[in-house]
Amino acid sequence: MTYDSIIIGSGLGGLTVAAKLSKEGEKVLVLEQHSVVGGCATTFQRKKFTMEVGLHEMDGFGEDSFKKKIFDELEVFNEVEFVRLPEFYRTVWKDMDFVFPDNEEEAKAKLKDEFPEESAAIDKYFRFINGLGKEIDNLPRTKSQKRIKEPLFPLFYPKLVRSTLNTAGQFADKLFHDERLKMILLSNSSYYHDDPYTLSLFYFAAGQNSYYSNGSYFIKGGSQKLSDYLMNYIRRQGGEVLLRKEVTSIITEKGRSVGVTYREEKKKGATDLQIFAHQIIANASIPQVANRLLATDDALPLQRQIEKMEAGPSILTVYLGFKKPPKEIGNKNYSTFFIDKSVNSIKDILNNAHAGFEDRSFVFVDYGMIDSGLAPEGKATGVICTIDYAADWKNLDQDTYRKKKEEVAEVLISRLEKLLPGIEKIIEYKEIGTSLTIGHYTFNTEGTPYGYAQTLGQTARKRLPVKSVIPGLYFASAWSSPGGGFSGAILSVYTCALKVLHDVQKET
Q1: What is the distance between the terminal CA atoms of the chain, rounded to a whole angstrom?
Q2: Nearest-10 crossing angle of helices 104-114, 201-214
Q3: pTM attached to this predicted model
Q4: Which of 197, 214, 231 is the last residue of a domain?
Q5: In terms of domains, do 230 and 208 share one?
Q6: pLDDT tens string 164-180
Q7: C-alpha pair distances (Å), 308 with each of 50, 278, 296, 452, 490
């Protein structure tokens, strides 16, 4: 059987591109090596707890936002419920404790009250962030499907241009003098990258603008609800989604991608099957495609493109199930960034990300602060998260790896106990996932959910476009333009779907 499109992987990107293509009448097949769809947009069950794998918060749905338009088109809001968060986040650093409101005007007023000498700079900061957001929303589109093109960067988009020439750290230093204010505004920079001084201002400002303008949300029941909805949507449109089917290679003919081989079962000696399509869409890490799925000669053009590109950092997560909600022992916030006392300025953030876990800054997310749908009545779930690197865990034997994980979990829980006394006593279940865990379940290179690092040298226009240099091969993931995160991946894959439809129309 020949399909119009075969999608390798069922992360949020693979599901979104398949949903759009199937809606447009394309015959699609999604092949997923795991037993569930979603990639990092998944949950898992432990006792009576639903553990959220990746989503802490999602930027909101402004009327003009691309994500709302995509979700409207795919009828997501009919079946998936989004819960608005009570605030953006809380920052605890040395003697400072600041809660960032989930409302731009309130946030500006509170920041000015706390830092009156920085009032003019605070206004300038928000004007820039908002201006960039408006320019992005008004990027050129075609009449057909309002297809988002590659950004144009002449004088028509001055803030966009400026944002491609600065890092988030440089921008903060130019505007502000008070390190406390810089730390507040960059507290969640770890959701983008590990170093403010290489983090592209474009990525940081675009993401922050969406939070500031449209609020923060959580998917009730966990991100698996969105992934499962998209899987069912694909099937209702006549598409196929097959689980436990690991793609082992991309088939090419005369340099063009024409199909895949995949393993029917994850067993030694299992036979690889072949299946063909007019185009192959990789919702997989681009290094995996270049170095594992394509034959050596076919992969050379792609390998040359990516040989100097840098993967982003990863995340370590301690999953916690609580006997009762932490708010009953005094926790007051949904998301709290605890910046270690060894950090003296935002210049120390990168070094701290490589420090031992007894000093590494972390975020505590308490899903019990909202109606998350993740725990039984009277209980709650939460996570401790920090930056992680696959290199810190490689070459360990199984016993050493397991022991180190347990030790790291205890260190982080003990540190949380000092900040929220009594939290240890209400923990009913705990489990830890490292960068290697992410790599195992998603096949992401270096276990990074970010794709290529969102650095100044790898901004949207410098990342790989959704159409590959290999004819017939497209990319739809955090690894391709514009970049990582839930929203970045959704925009990337929707752009990919429109590009595929455009190319199909040209061929016919």
Answers
A1: 20
A2: 110
A3: 0.93
A4: 214
A5: no
A6: 789 999 999 999 999 99
A7: 39, 30, 18, 11, 25
